[in-house]
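Field: COMPLEX_INPUT
Field: COMPONENT_COUNT = two
Field: RESIDUE_TOTAL = 820
Field: MODE = joint
Values follow.
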Amino acid sequence: MIQYFLNRLLQTIPVLFGVIVITFVLMYIIPGDPVVSMVGERYNEETIQRLREDMHLDDPLFIQFFRYVGNVFRGNFGNSFITGEPVINLIMEKFPNTMMLAVGAMFFAILFGLTAGILTSIRPGSFIDRGIMVLALAGISAPVFWVGLILILVVGVMLRWLPPTGFGGIEYLILPALTLGLRSAAYLARLTRATMLDVMSQDYIRTARSKKLSEWKIYLQHAFPNTLIPVITVIGTDFGSYLSGAVLTESIFGWPGIGRLALEAIMKRDFPVIQGTVLFMAIMFVLMNVLVDMLYGVVDPRIRLERSGK
Amino acid sequence: MFRPIRILILSLLFLGCVKEIDYKTLTTAFSTDIRGFDPAFATDIRTGKIISLVYDNLVRFDNEMNLVPALTQRWSVDLSGRQYTFIIRNNVHFHDGSLLTVFDIAKSFQRILDPNTASTQTWLLDRITGAKDFMTGKEDSLKGLIISNDSTIVIKLDKPFAPFIQYLAMPAAAIINIKENESLTQTPSGSGPWKLERWERDGEIIFSRNEKYWDNHPKTERMRIRILSEVMTQSAEFEAGSLDILEVPQGEMEYWKQYSYNQLDVDELNIWYIGMNCSRPPFNDMRLRRAMNYAIDREKIIHILLNNSATLANGPLPPQLLHEAGEMHYEYNPNRAIQLLKEAGFDNDLHTELYVAGGSGMFHVLEALQSDWEKVGITVDIKRSDWNVFKTSVREGKPDLYYLDWFADYPDGENFLYPLFHSKESMTKRNRFSDPEIDVIIEKIQQLTNSVERQQLIATANMMVADAAPWVFLWHSKTTYLTREWISGFQPSSIFNANRYMNITKDLPR
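Field: COMPLEX_OUTPUT
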């Protein structure tokens, strides 16, 4: 078991190295000079030259690359071209905010998605089933920015139930978490319903019914646990993407997270911040995938045994 | 039966979440965050605005764009125009309580020029005698910066340079508390009317008023500047009462007309233009450049597409910087444009590209211009790229045409003429325009202190540039602000760092 997880972790190293190579090369082959963003409209040519030298932008590409990789392995993502601050500090400053939003969105997605999925699978074809599935389809199809703006207008401006945007206590979290988690909730609802219907036609459910177990016990204790593998996959990958920042949601709601940090860095050509945030996003995503793999083993011991070749 | 009660409870729960209006805190918004609180790196307007809140300068601009004393009680310039003498106030304290002295002023200026600071703003102070030697490490101190006594500091320049005194009102010339200059990016160290409470990057900046400010302190206790990148979000927050002041986005002018919020229009010191590369064909031909100007119906565009939120440009300078308005140069005249094109030998076969920064929200306007040019036989393709790629291209002189704007650093015609049309600047950074006669006039404007002759030369240079048509002169934009009914005393200014939110009160509406 431990060997399996170690193997999975080792497999992430080439992935992350690939991410480092791709982001580094992309940053340097796209046109545009980062120094131009730093100096503003008025500058001396000497200032431009001095900044290029200070930032080693005139060094050969491979020297810049090995310097960067060496620094990354020492935990140094470099300093922002714009503010001069260590990139790792900027990321760490934003990460708790992103984590808060991701947890809020996932809480909403799990709560609504799984509940809706189980409810609709109890009486397929009923009014409730059809209604919820139509809503789920709308949830999957609706663009995030549209949902966000509608929630701001209706809940924040017209009804004034919640602050439209901003960052702070739980009241600020509800709308962005709903916006971000809606798609996952809708997808989880459809997935849970489909998997539950499949499980409910299995022999062991018939056996449970013949033993006169209550329907709720059958649903929650016998059927639902067997739907968890695909559900965990969706939750894990979606949570990984939330942790790596939700650019649109964070922008619409003025939420100061990793996504906005990356977006601002891209707009300002702040290379070290772009590279740092992309690498951080990749690490988050890969780690969540590893975690999901580990959870498979916890939820279904057969997977552990099969993969370890026993 | 229980359903309405549940809904009621839920509604009350939600209602409880919405905070009451905080009458002690003034709230406004920026669309992007600032770079930090270090004056040495204040290159953008937003950062410059914030620097003016937490720091003081020797001089500053008031809301009417007059240069007024700030940390200096008074100043004088000698007859040569090279020596400035400042008598400093002796009752100014930094936010940490320490007294601001002439030594802090000298050190603040030296810091900008110090190579170790790596400031991008050295151009502001590098005319001080000995600056070049100091910057290259040949000298340990600035020869032209002389502390005469505890309250007098003298600055000597290599050559007379009239805008220098205005440079001292710019963000990079702010006076910092040199004793704690370690982390200025995150923590300001100034003496300004507002003290930083908290900066949540990309979230909000919160200030409290400096109760011990040497001048009248701000009327509101706190100020909160929220960073809201989406226009729609800002509007929603204003409507919900969470923002007190809203800078109305261009596309929403019509929408806000239905409301009765207080509205303030400000004629900005700026110009929007199409730069034409004057150093190579086809735009090295002045007739073609003039034809480009005559071919477009700017009045119609301003009226229909810009909701009248701009005034026609007659040359590069905004009218506020000219003592009298000259005759309009380029009225809409497509026939004249066609005639000029014929004279220049372009007969319906001119095809060119217009470079635009991707973030520009003015594509509908550019398409209108494109259509007008098409009518006289000039085909213009719009080429979009991101801001950095765009600026790099302009700097390298790649585009034949590019769409850009210029906002004043300080309210002086020189600030439009030298950086944009003097050959030393234009040939290396902008649209490669060079006219030795205009260069000479601009240099003379830089040397003359305020006088009738200087004003006349500025007007002359403006007309000469308009004649030579290195740009398609478009318009000077206005900014419209809305304030909520509980706000009074808000007075926006045409110059970016003049308004320090000092006289605004926030009270229950009567």
